[in-house]
Amino acid sequence: MPKLPTLELFFAEFRRSWIQFRRYPAEAIGGIFIITSVFYGLFLSAQYVAGPGLSLGDRLDSIIVGYILWTMVTFILFDISGTLQREAQTGTLEQLFLAAFSTPRLFFIRAVASLMIQMILIVTILGLIMLLTSRFLAFPIVLFLPLLSMIFGAYGLAFIIGSLTLLFKRIQQLFAVVQFSLLFLISTPTEEWEGTGKLISYFLPMTPGAGLLRDLMARQIDLSWDRLAIAFLNGGVYFTIGILIFRWAERRTKQQGKLSGY
């Protein structure tokens, strides 16, 4: 079978994701409504408990940044595992592993193409939250750098979760645990920790990049290039670990003859 160029494969996957997005608009609209409503409900609850004198200032901006980043990371994390589950259910999983491309590259390109479509939803959700809360974030051009470091780390975790899906097929309960653990992890202002806590935060997945984005978008602080280097190192390490674990899980699944089973 002749190999497709990587760029051609990306555009094919992007077109596939766009067709699916257009065919199921109710799902996209429902996702926007639910995610926005959850945040706004929490915001109104906090206002009610604290009274009319509540003034969070840039803390509310930081909370908005953390919530949006968590939404994006959630899309990323469960894209690969969701693809694996759907392909296993329809009986086409084995065909993907026989493709001309290596499996990690295929799933990574498919996930990136899907994320570009999902970014439409994420930007829409962010815009609605800013309108509802009357808090408007800053968008300096350099924010894409820490965002990229976070995306690498998120895909590393996505491949780890995908490995578990490949081995066990159904891990929905784990999804919930990971999802809400990440909400705490990404929303916590680890960039304000001191001493040993700050050192620990450098090893937690995606937290260095999330801290930089809070500084840029909520506090209007200039980008720290030293912390950016740490963020990219963090994302690169988790991405590499995720790929290695996924390759091991692929070999293990093939050895056990469970690739086509569900």
Automatic annotation (TrEMBL):
Organism superkingdom: Bacteria
Keywords: Membrane, Transmembrane, Transmembrane helix
Protein name, as recorded: ABC transporter permease
Protein transport among keywords: no
Residues spanning the membrane: 24-43, 63-85, 106-131, 137-161, 173-190, 228-249
InterPro entries hit by this protein: Nod_factor_ABC_transporter (IPR051784)
KW Transmembrane (keyword) present: yes
